[in-house]
Amino acid sequence: MVEIVYEMLSDREKSLIECCLDRIGNGANRIYIAPFDRVGRSGARLFRVFFCPDKDCYPHIVKIDRKDRIQREYENFQKIQNYLLPETTGAPREPIYESREAEEALGILYFQIVSDSNFDSARTLQLSDIIFDVSNDPDIEKERLDCLRNIFDRLYGICLSRTADTSNNEPTSVLLKDEFEWHISAIKRLNPRKKYGQIVGIEHIDEAMSTCAGANFANPVRLFEEISSGKGIWEEPVIRNLKHVHGDLHCNNIVLNSEKKPVLIDFAWAQLNADILKDFVLLENSIRVVMFPAYVNLDRHKEIDEFLLEEDGPLKARNLLTGDEPLFLHYVRLLEIVEIIRKYARRYGGKGYDWPQYLQSQFITMYRQLAYDTPNSIVGFRTLGMIGNRVKHEHQRS
Ligand SMILES: Nc1ncnc2c1ncn2[C@@H]1O[C@H](COP(=O)(O)OP(=O)(O)O)[C@@H](O)[C@H]1O
Ligand SMILES: [Mg+2]
Q1: What residue spans define the domains of the chain?
Q2: What confidence tens digit (pLDDT) does each residue in 37-56 have?
């Protein structure tokens, strides 16, 4: 008989999980730990944990990471907690730290798992699983699209309705470099210049204009450098409506409960009084440049991207599509959903909202998303370039 020695957790991690048992205090005296097949970008370790006398009790997820990161996520969650309905959040409980003082200490955050999960399988569902899960059967596809529409309507109409309440809000002047500080510092840290150079040709990184997959536009690397240093056309503040935001609303941070209703998780970047558009542009970007299939027809995709430079572009682009073209069902979904997101952005955008604001916020957040690995960087950077080009022209015109 072979002995299997299995060490999934370090002693430090084990003792943190034990501390959660004391807190939960439901008479449980046993902890079952199972792997969790989901991971996020932060690099945190996640496990499914059952605190109980048996394996059937309700599972939790524990997230173990550096103390400062766990602390930030919990504190940011607390800031906006009162503006969210409890049933629409995967709310973390108060975290536990190995030590309050030590810099290198670990922390643990734990919350109840959303959607069905038992000891043997973690059937958690999130938006990224279904967003482009198309069916060729028209009846099934109609049902799935209706389900997605409901999810997005609920997301903005219910989950985020209180954070985005427009009643007593005045437009405020902000410098983009201040408002998007963490996006800008993340871009600087990830340094996508080289990646961009590989796409347009290393010798062209610093030219004023770029050419990428058949499109010409003002070089987004240069535009970003201007925005991030507040130089050139970006010396003047821009107008924004400041409200409470989730701050990192992408398809992997929206999980679905057993009724397929959206539940928000991962509050590491939640903010009070921030550009409300962050919760719209990031999700649109996530669908367009992260989730959309990588195998697109470059010319067709460019046409769609051109339409999407206009606020009402989704509707117009829809009329262009023909039922027999590749990715037809994917484009239909993309356009429907982008239309819903923009409808709510305008509704919550408040006084003084205009379309160029959306494009500016979209440019900066998309740049950060592309600085990570995305399925098709060439198409993604071309989309970014087209948006940046429009941003620059709109700004010069105003
Ligand atoms: N309460 C939860 N219920 C179900 N799945 C969850 C829950 N919390 C996290 N997850 C899953 O774990 C993944 C990573 O968790 P997250 O808190 O987003 O970590 P990160 O900060 O690394 O992105 C999520 O994308 C999701 O798939
Ligand atoms: Mg996450």
Answers
A1: 11-123, 127-397
A2: 888 888 899 999 988 876 56
What residues are neighbours of ligand 2 (ion), with CB under 5 Å?
Answer: 40, 253, 266
First to last CA, the chain: 77
By C-alpha distance, which of 8, 13, 10 is closest to 97? 13
Indicate which ligand has the atom closest to the C-alpha of 265.
1
| Residue 240 structure tokens | 């924004």
Computed over every residue of the chain, the mean pLDDT equals: 92
Tens digits of residue pLDDT in 268-286: 999 999 999 999 999 999 9
How many C-beta neighbours within 10 Å does residue 122 have? 18
CA 213 / ligand 2 centre spacing (Å): 31
Ligand 2: centre distance to CA 128 (Å): 12
**Beta partners for residue 93, in sequence order:** none
- Domain 11-123 fold is Phosphorylase Kinase; domain 1 (3.30.200)
Distance 379 CA to ligand 2 centre (A): 24
Please give the DSSP secondary-structure letter assigned to residue 103: T
Q: Domain 127-397 class?
A: alpha beta
